[in-house]
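Forum: Protein Structure Q&A
Topic: Joint prediction for protein chains with partners

I've read a bunch of threads here and the consensus seems to be that you should model interacting components together rather than docking separate models afterwards. I'd like to see that in practice. Below is the full input, 225 residues plus whatever partners are listed. Could one of the regulars post the assembled result?
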Amino acid sequence: KQEVTQIPAALSVPEGENLVLNCSFTDSAIYNLQWFRQDPGKGLTSLLLIQSSQREQTSGRLNASLDKSSGRSTLYIAASQPGDSATYLCDLEYTGNQFYFGTGTSLTVIP
Amino acid sequence: DAGVIQSPRHEVTEMGQEVTLRCKPISGHNSLFWYRQTMMRGLELLIYFNNNVPIDDSGMPEDRFSAKMPNASFSTLKIQPSEPRDSAVYFCASTTLERNTEAFFGQGTRLTVV
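Posted by a regular:
Agreed with the consensus. Here's the joint model:
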């Protein structure tokens, strides 16, 4: 079974700081990698999707990178804000509509 | 579009009762997924449908769980009989069968079995 690990499990930073969330996986033959955020008691909101042929995607203050050879994706958040506080999940898609979610990183941005 | 719509948002039921969770995917999406989320196991894929046909139900934990998709705009996940260990948040997600498209999730149904 594919192992998808997100480290750290929890992160607390002061407002304004830049930060990086990590997602590691064992099988590099992915189709897509998608980053989600989940607010308490809410569903998952898609942030960025990186296709297997791409190395990064950017949306506003968010930048996601993908390095298949090292089995790693990072989500970079610039100038963090309290509203960024949430759990961030990476999701890997393989052939045959197989999806594997990471364990999640709980982010708290302190005003 | 209103997004993926799930109902109910919260369900509390007694052990042994039948529970039915409902999902309306985004119009035009032809792939639908049911997930379960718990603190212990994180997010797990239970079953998914392509064009209303179940493709992979290997994630369904037991025969007590069943899912149907009678048409492109509606799906149900049923648990009969329910048990306390079924307590979790159940998410539905939809996407298109085209490659490299995002999946969109519903708000989830929080199920508590007492």
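The first strand of chain B starts at residue 5 and ends at 7.
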